[in-house]
Amino acid sequence: MARLPLPNLLPYATELAGAALRRADAALFPRFHLRQRINGRTVLITGASTGIGEVLAYRLAQAGAQVLLTARSTEKLEQVAARIEQQGGRVTIYPCDIANPEDCDRMAAEVLAEHPRIDVLVNNAGRSIRRPVLRSLNRFHDFERTMQLNYFGAIRLTMALLPRLIDQGGAHVINISTLGMQTIPARFAAYLASKGALEMWTQAAANELGHKRIRFSLVNFPLVRTPMIAPTEIYRYTPAISPEQAVDQICRAIITRQKRVASPLAYVALGAHMFLPTLSEALVNLGYQLTPESAAARGKTLPAPQEQHPDNVRPLRRRRQR
Ligand SMILES: NC(=O)c1ccc[n+]([C@@H]2O[C@H](COP(=O)([O-])OP(=O)(O)OC[C@H]3O[C@@H](n4cnc5c(N)ncnc54)[C@H](OP(=O)(O)O)[C@@H]3O)[C@@H](O)[C@H]2O)c1
């Protein structure tokens, strides 16, 4: 019988040994420790032309990282890159449609050819669809499109880079998810299924790759005021965090390398769905019946909001000054 190789538990031992310290770092002086963690490192950010990815690109470039940015829009990526360069940052853009498998492979090959190592990959590009199942019966493409970007795109890129990430001695992959994974709001079947697939892949891959020093983190955002939620009228009046606050959470993941960054609400909702499943379903269903369909779900387009943060929108929490 062939002898099994000796298991390597050292990476887990060192990771666990530093865990408490890294959490203290993230809580006490996050900007300082972000710089310590990321200065001189190479970070690939998908979906970096707008919203959370754009703000993350500025934050990490300011902290000294070389940022590699990808999204479909070349023009917007160039604008983001110009701003980073004006501030003295190092940036390269890789326009790409990550939902297109061939284009995704091309971009990954270019990144690998031009950079000897990638220290952090943030799979942030995503699309959300808010539409109830009964309005999706003739819209199977909603399910295909969300899977194509949020799941297949993210894992295709990660797997294209994986051999290099292992050869270079390790890396950190941060996959962006949603608080909806725990709260399971109505009208998001297509979106949640794609993020659920991403979460399960992430956890399964982490179980296999931890000893190769490939760390995975999941970040579960609540509502964030970005272009993604603009088409949904009701969200103009719903509490949401700012993109800067969302980026704070990704930076926390970078500093701590914890498995999941999520608010306490995530754990309360998860507990409710596990231990009081019928009651929590009834509450979500009640909310579903009492809230109107968005114009997009009814097949209409809304006029663009006058400004991104109208006065009547109260942020969930004020951004802490550091
Ligand atoms: N906003 C929220 O309330 C919220 C809540 C929970 C989780 N999230 C998650 O947070 C992440 C970022 O969301 P966001 O709110 O910042 O969204 P956003 O403002 O709509 O930005 C999405 C980014 O993804 C890029 N993108 C879209 N389709 C792409 C494709 N096929 N290939 C490559 N890039 C593509 C977009 O650029 P191009 O259009 O130029 O390609 C853009 O840079 C997503 O994964 C989202 O699911 C958001």
From TrEMBL:
SMART domains: PKS_KR. Residues 296-322 are annotated as: Disordered. Keywords: Oxidoreductase. InterPro entries: KR_dom, NAD(P)-bd_dom_sf, SDR_fam. Pfam families: adh_short. SUPFAM superfamilies: NAD(P)-binding Rossmann-fold domains. Residues 41-227 form the Ketoreductase domain. Belongs to the short-chain dehydrogenases/reductases (SDR) family. This is SDR family NAD(P)-dependent oxidoreductase. It comes from Alcanivorax quisquiliarum.
